[in-house]
Amino acid sequence: MKELVLSWVGDNRLWIVAIFLIVLATALGAWVYARFVRQMAARAETTVNPWDDALVGALNPPGSVLIWLMGLTLAAGRAGTATGAEVFNLAQPLRDVGLILVVAWFAWRFSHNAERNLRDPRYMGKPVDATTVRAVGKLVRASIMITAGMVLMQYFNYSISGILAFGGIGGLAVGFAAKDLLANFFGGLMIYLDRPFSVGDWVRSPDQEIEGTVEDIGWRLTRIRTFDKRPLYIPNGIFTQISVENPSRMLNRRIYETVGIRYEDAPLMAAIVDDVKAMLLQHPEIDANQTLIVNFNSFAPSSLDFFIYTFTRTTEWVRYHEIKQDVLLKILQIIEGHGASCAFPTSTLHIAELPGSAAEMAAG
Q1: Does residue 231 have a cis bond before it (omega within 30 degrees)?
Q2: 148 and 100 in contact (C-beta within 8 Å)?
Q3: In terms of pTM, does the model score above 0.85?
Q4: Which DSSP string do the residues of 67-102 spell out, in sequence order?
Q5: Cys-Cys link to 91, which of 13, 76, 194, 300 (CB 3.0-4.6 A)?
């Protein structure tokens, strides 16, 4: 009798023990996973990175649901093998569909958390523009939903070629309608990738009347504060069509001036040029490692001209003009120290001798 009971249990009830062990292992795995996620969340809270918090926040509950999904469908499959019941044949498709939905759920939560963190000053020293973040977040979540839906349709053997063709035509129409919007979006993306300028830089364009300090770089617009304190809003697509100068990234600033002395001071020209060059070489604010030229240059109508070509160490605008003023004043002192003078435009009027009768009439 005992042997009969053991045989019956071994043949007909051993699968129950297997299912119990599978469910127990699933519950243990879910508990360990939840504990691991809590530890990761505590560690992520000690950082100010918006991405790790978004990732950890998205792991649970989708991760726990996935563990239970895999465990319960595995148990159902074992029960179906033991009993032959057709209802357990749904375990495999349920697992596949559930896996697709859980992955989409995780991606949805991650994008939502990232959107929230990018607008939170606790994570970002300068939060990203809220309107831009919301727009990109909605676009990403819509893409997740569409992708998940198409994968499910493909899994159930529904042809998606017609939908893709319709989507291609619709996308083409939307692309034409939103051409400028897309151009500005990709223009902003190129600015973020290439970094021709950043917030705080002084920029200007020789192609457009654009000059000022960059205050904000959005996905659609860049805001520049002009030097008369007006805000200038420029669509990002414009920057793909024009050249942009970034004076903030200059290594030096140039002093290029022409100075003229009188023709009667011609014998003093060589000494003046030599003294000016020596002064520039010894000036603490002039970068002697850059090109430095002081030479007699031309015979002008009213002066003998020499030019100076040199670079300051500073690139700061106000400081540059202070240094330039000091250099020009020292040049004046050198010229006057040699007894010469700077020339100014002059004209000489030659009057022809008058005829005798005219001279007598003028005298009378």
Answers
A1: no
A2: yes
A3: no
A4: HHHHHHHHHHHHHHHHH--GGGGGHHHHHHHHHHHH
A5: 76
CA distance linking residue 66 with residue 109, whole number of Å: 15
Quote the CA–CA distance of 29 and 21 in Å, as a whole number: 12
Q: What is the total residue count of the chain?
A: 364
Encoded tokens for 344: 């100014």
Orientation of helix 91-118 relative to helix 130-155, angle to 10°: 170
Q: How far apart are CA 316 and CA 323, in angstroms?
A: 11
Strands 304-312 and 210-217: unpaired
pLDDT tens track for 74-107: 888 777 777 777 766 777 888 888 888 888 988 8
Q: Which amino acid is at 325?
A: Q
Hey, what amino acid is at 148?
A
User: Residue 144 contacts by C-beta under 8 Å, 6 or more apart in sequence?
Assistant: 104, 107, 108, 111
Bridge partner list, 212: 203
Tokens of 129: 């523009």
Q: Taking a C-beta distance cutoff of 8 angstroms, is the pair 74, 22 a contact?
A: yes
